[in-house]
Amino acid sequence: MELYNHPILSVSNLCTGYYKKMVLEQVSFNVREGEKVAIVGRNGAGKSTLLMAILGVLRAWSGQVNYLGRDYTNKSAEEHVRSGMALVPQGGRVFANLMVRENLELGAYVMDNRQIISKSLELVYETFPILQERTTQKAGTLSGGERQMLAIGRAMMSQPKLLMLDEPSLGLAPLVVKELMDKILELNKALGTTVLIVEQNVRAAFRIVERVYVLKLGKIVFEEKPDILLHDERLRKAYLA
């Protein structure tokens, strides 16, 4: 896919944390339109915190989040979603007592064109046929992999320009992880959706992305292409040191 010169997302010198504890320190990186980028790091590196800050759920202490060429630092999460961001949270979170279709329709709450919503639903069902089979089933009865598919499908209902995924492989069997990653790649190709994926499972993420940033103790320590990084001593040190 052709990449554009200007980034869809640019994070500059971002600092934030919880209460008085700083979690992210001077984090800077960018994602170009249509690109697939991974941010990897061990547990506690600050990966989920970074996504929360980008989406506006967590307030930035300093630095800047630029999206679509505009300053989105500390705008509300709703403003981010309406502008075309979507986040799939860790653990395949769904509304357990609602049916599959109801979960998906909630993902389109920022849209009011029923025709577009119907087309989005068709695309989700085409991408994840199992969800169409389970359309009237309560989400809480789905398997772990199916819940993660539902969470991704719900995010896709708003037709996001930027899709962010937080540890989509967490707790899933290797075959399910491979299927999920393949589906994410399909969505990127079909819609041109820019993908930012946060993962600990580096091999799973590296299969589908073009660039990788490594986050260690709240700082981006380096950037590299995935095929190079798999054989790079720096990756092992970032995880084990």
Order of helices and strands: EEEHEEHEHHHHEHEHEEHH
What is the number of E strands?
10
- Secondary-structure arrangement, i.e. CATH architecture of one domain: 3-Layer(aba) Sandwich
Query: Helix count, per DSSP?
Result: 10
**Biggest β-sheet description:** 6 strands, mixed
Termini separation comes to: 36 Å
Backbone structural class: alpha/beta
Radius of gyration: 17 Å
Strand content: 25-35%
CATH class category name of one domain: Alpha Beta
Task: Describe the SSE topology.
Elements: E1 7-18, E2 21-32, E3 36-40, H1 47-55, E4 62-67, E5 70-71, H2 77-82, E6 85-88, H3 100-106, H4 114-127, H5 129-133, H6 144-156, E7 162-166, H7 174-191, E8 194-199, H8 202-206, E9 211-216, E10 219-224, H9 226-229, H10 233-240
Parallel strand pairs: 3-8, 3-9, 6-7, 7-8
Antiparallel strand pairs: 1-2, 1-4, 4-5, 9-10
Protein model, in words:
The protein has 241 residues and is an alpha/beta fold. Strand 4 and strand 5 form a beta hairpin. Helix 6 packs parallel to helix 7. Strands 6-7-8-3-9-10 form a six-stranded mixed sheet, with helices on both faces. A four-stranded antiparallel sheet has the order 2-1-4-5, covered by helices on one side. The chain is built from ten helices and ten strands. The chain has a domain of 140 residues: P-loop containing nucleotide triphosphate hydrolases (Rossmann fold, 3-Layer(aba) Sandwich), CATH 3.40.50.300.
